[in-house]
Amino acid sequence: MKKERYQLVILLIACIAIFSPNYAQYQLSPLAPQLISDFGLTSGEFAGIFSAPMIPAIFLSLVAGILVDKFGARRVLGVSLFISAAGIGLRLTANSYFALFSCMVLAGFSALFLNASGPKILGGWFPASSLGAAMGAFLAASTLGMALGMGATAMLPSVPSAYLISFGVSLLAFILWVVLMKSPPQPPEAGEQPQSPPIGQCLKVVLKNRTVWVVGLSLMFAMGGNVTLSSFLPSALGQRGFDSVAAGAISSSVMLGSLTGCLLSPVLASKLGTPRLFLFILGLIAGISTAYAWLAPQGVLLWSALFITGIAMGGLMPLLISLPIQLPEIGPLYAGTAGGLTGTLQLLGAVIIPSWIIVPLARDSMSELFLWGGICVLAAGFLAFLLPDLKKKKLLNNNN
C-alpha cells in the first residue's frame, strides 16, 4: 500500500489508541454515585481514582519521550497499550479502593506514551503541511473519548458492562497496533536511517532548545486555564440557578467546541499562513471567553459563548503540540523527547495552576477564578510571539 494511503491507517490506529484510555477514564464520571456507594468511597477518594491515569504522565512524560526516541515508537507504544488494556480489563475484578486506583494508574500508561510521542508517530508519515491537521484529528479522538465516556455510559445497564466495552476498545487498540503499525518508509534521498541517539544527546538537544520551552510554557498556561474552566464551570452555573443536569449539559458545549477546534484550527492556520498571529488570536478569544462566557444570558447566547470558548481553547493544542517536530534541529529524531518535555509542562500546568495558584488567588469568588483562568490562557497566546517563523527558518536552513 502506498505511503499516502497508509497514512490514514496509521492515523486511524493512533486515534483509536488515544480514544481508549480517555474513554475508560471518563466513564467513571457518570458511574460516580454507584462506585462511591459500592466501595464506600469519600469524594476525595473518588477524585483520586478519577485522576489516577494522570499520575504516570506527571512523573514519566520526559522518560517516555526518551524511550520512544531510543527504542522506537512501535515497540514502546505496543508495551504501553498492553499495560493499559490490562489495567482497564482488571477493573472487572477490582473490589477495593486501592485495587481500582491501581487499575486506573495502569490504564493511563498508553495515554502517557501517546501524548509524548504523538507528533513523532504522525510526523514520520505526514508532511509538515498536513501534520497539524493529523494532530488535530488525533486530539479530537481524545476529546471524543472523554465526551462519549461522560455522555453515553449512563445508558449502559451496569458498571461491569461499561468496563467490558472499554476493555474491548483497549484490546482492539493493542491488536491493531501490533498487527498494522509500521515504521514510516524512508525516502530514497534520505540515505540510511539515522541510528537511535544516546539518551544524553536527546536531553542535551531538547533542553537547550528555546522554542521547545516556549511551546511547553504555552501549553502549561493553556491547560491551567482549561482545567480551571472545566472543573468549576458546572458549579458556577449552579450558583446562577441551573440544576445539576442543566449545568452539566451546558458545560458539555465547551467540550463540543474543543472537538471542533481541534479539527478546524490546523486547516485555518495552514490557509492563513501566519501561525504565530493565529495562535495569538485563539489565545485572545479563549482568554476573554474563559473569563466572561459563563456570565452570558441563559439560552442560545450562553451555549454559543461556551462553544466558542471551546473552539478557541481546543484550537490552540494541535498547533502547539505539532510545532517542535517541525523544527530542523528537533525533527522526528528528537520529537519524542521534545514531546515528553512539553507534555510534562502541560500536565504541571493542569495540576499546579488551578489548585495551587488560581484557587487561592480567587478567594472563593467564581468571577475571580475564571478571570485568573482567562489570564493564563492569554499568557499562552502572548507567548506565541516568541515562537519562530517556521517558513523563514526552513528557508534559512535550506540556503545554508
From TrEMBL:
One of the Pfam families matching this protein, by short name: MFS_1
Location in or out of the cell: Cell membrane; Lysosome membrane
Primary localization class, coarse: membrane
InterPro entries: MFS, MFS_dom, MFS_trans_sf, MFSD1
Catalysed transformations (reactions): L-lysyl-L-lysine(out) = L-lysyl-L-lysine(in); L-alanyl-L-lysine(out) = L-alanyl-L-lysine(in); L-lysyl-L-alanine(out) = L-lysyl-L-alanine(in); L-lysyl-glycine(out) = L-lysyl-glycine(in)
GO molecular function: transmembrane transporter activity
GO cellular-component term (any): plasma membrane
Family stated for the protein in its record: Belongs to the major facilitator superfamily.
Assembly description: Homodimer. Interacts with lysosomal protein GLMP (via lumenal domain); the interaction starts while both proteins are still in the endoplasmic reticulum and is required for stabilization of MFSD1 in lysosomes but has no direct effect on its targeting to lysosomes or transporter activity.
Protein name per the record: Lysosomal dipeptide transporter MFSD1
Species this protein is from: Desulfosporosinus orientis (strain ATCC 19365 / DSM 765 / NCIMB 8382 / VKM B-1628 / Singapore I) (Desulfotomaculum orientis)
